[in-house]
TrEMBL record:
Gene3D superfamilies recorded: Homeodomain-like
Name assigned to this protein: Uncharacterized protein
Location of the protein in the cell: Nucleus
UniProt keyword annotation of NADP present: no
Compositionally biased spans, kind Low complexity: 137-150, 173-207
Keyword set, alphabetical order: DNA-binding, Nucleus, Repeat, Transcription, Transcription regulation
Native source species: Corchorus capsularis
Xref: InterPro entries: Homeodomain-like_sf, Myb_dom, Myb_TF_plants, SANT/Myb
Length: 306
DNA sequence: AAGCATCGCAACCGCATATGG
DNA sequence: TCCATATGCGGTTGCGATGCT
């Protein structure tokens, strides 16, 4: 895939936006919209690349942006969604009106991650090593959030963890994946799998990518009812691997997908790796399986039966 | 009061994907 | 079908603000 050369740097301004530039961008978009970001700066008379304009608009200038501190509710939502979705900030942002992916990402890295880490360090229990026993007490999220209260108002005390660039604190790090320990019993059945793919280790990144397509489509269409449905699913059913759409009904539909990897995978214990079991188990039936899956879900036109 | 350390946020970078010719 | 371009996304960085010694 060819990639557009990142904005011709010749003569283009970088760095913080000035109020004047903001005003120009706002005026232009209010007047003409932003059909073509690439052409926009030129037409608006801005010495910025389109990418920069888009970012400035979506992250800062958009009128529907909610500024200010995140509420407790929002933070809890982020924590829960992150457990389910991993570092898919845009997906998380989609569920938080007025908040941008960038903002959420920042909040996560500067506040929530540390808070969870602190909580996990101080609050690890014997359940930690037993995925099936990992349960978030009813107050876990609240507790984690309460840790915020313990922070200084600016979250700047000596106990703060240094700014970490190391992979250890990347999404795949234990520190981040550890929220498992704070999962609610309801959530854990789903998050165990979705989180595995998103934050367990690098080897799962591929599966993340592949699944992302699926999940994105699904997620955007799945309403809250679905999630309540999923979240309230029987924990003892260890077939939640792809509990992502009732369109699929595949969890236990072994008749429909007699040889599908999913069917096989559903027989696997919950704590198995999502990616390796489902998406990349080197089973040749994968493609057929996914094709069937999409076909059934109506995402692809049905081909004549072979 | 000065210097240093740390935080928080805006912005940038580069990759992946979508789209259109 | 291929290729070039546009867009979206997540990771990372730079720097001003703030706190600490």
């Amino acid at each position: 895939m060819g990639r557009a050369p990142c904005c011709e740097k010749m003569g283009l301004k970088k760095g913080p936006w000035t109020p004047e530039e903001d005003q120009i961008l706002i005026n232009y978009i209010n007047q003409f919209g932003h059909g073509n970001w690439r052409a926009l700066p030129k037409q608006a008379g801005l010495l910025r690349c389109g990418k920069s304009c888009r970012l400035r608009w979506t992250n800062y200038l958009r009128p529907d942006i909610k500024r200010g501190n995140f509420t407790q509710e929002e933070e809890d939502t982020i924590i829960n969604l992150h457990e389910m979705l991993g570092n898919r900030w845009s997906a998380i942002a989609a569920r938080l009106p007025g908040r941008t992916d960038n903002e959420i990402k920042n909040v996560w890295h500067t506040h929530l991650k540390k808070r969870l880490k602190q909580y996990n360090n101080g609050g690890s229990t014997s359940n930690e090593n037993n995925p099936k026993k990992r349960q978030k007490t009813a107050t876990t999220v609240a507790e984690a959030a309460a840790a915020k209260g313990n922070d200084s108002s600016k979250d700047k005390n000596k106990n703060n963890i240094k700014k970490e660039q190391d992979p250890v604190n990347c999404p795949n790090s234990p520190a981040v994946s550890s929220p498992q320990e704070s999962l609610s019993s309801e959530v854990s059945t789903v998050t165990t799998t979705s989180e595995n793919h998103s934050s367990s280790n690098n080897s799962n990144m591929m599966s993340t990518k592949m699944e992302t397509q699926i999940e994105d489509e699904e997620f955007s269409e799945i309403d809250e009812n679905f999630w309540s449905e999923v979240l309230s699913a029987d924990n003892s059913s260890e077939f939640q691997v792809v509990a992502s759409s009732d369109q699929l009904q595949a969890q236990t539909d072994h008749d429909y997908f007699p040889s599908s990897p999913l069917a096989a995978a559903t027989l696997e214990p919950v704590n198995n790796d999502f990616g390796s079991n489902i998406l990349f188990d080197n089973d040749d039936t994968n493609m057929d399986f996914w094709y069937n899956l999409f076909t059934r879900a109506g995402d692809l036109p049905e081909l004549p039966q072979l």
